[in-house]
Amino acid sequence: MTKQELRVKYKLLRAAIDEEELEEMSMEIANRLLQLPIWQLSTYHLFLSIKKQKEINTEFILHILQGKDKNVVISKSDFELHTLSHILLTDNTVMKVNKWGIPEPVDGIKMDERQLEVVFVPLLVFDEQGNRIGYGKGFYDRFLASCNSETIKIGLSVFPAEEIIEGVLPTDIRLDYCVTPEKIYQFEK
Predict the structure, then answer these.
(1) What is the pLDDT of residues 152-162, one digit of tens each?
(2) Residue 76 belongs to domain with CATH number
(3) Number of structural domains found in the chain
């Protein structure tokens, strides 16, 4: 299926998930993440969930990261340039939900993408080769392209992998892992 066909299909599938089931799957994904060989690192980028899009609840992951005393970095979106800036999450970080429903920091300590060791990546669907489809604006592809080559990219999905996504572009950044409630997928570099 093409990117657009898959985007439509998975938005509908996600819309059909009830809140309780989503919470359960989100917790299973967070627990499964503990099996990955990433916990010796110190700086992690985490997206905060867009509730109206029924994204996985990343609060469970946030609690794990804070419990392990990790540096957590979150993004602020620029919808004119389709870019993200990155802010270190601290006890003093003031959060606000923007008009698209994305919780974001108002301001704070800026972080360079090259400092990030692990990035948890939102997505609608992914395939067995580690390709992903987001909402189609390219925010994460641009962001991931500016991370250093050693940054570990981990997709989070409530659904299993598609066999293949048609129409993958050279600018599409592949994942290293994708974690679902049932399985950890690891992709070749």
Answers:
(1) 999 999 999 99
(2) 3.40.50.10420
(3) 1
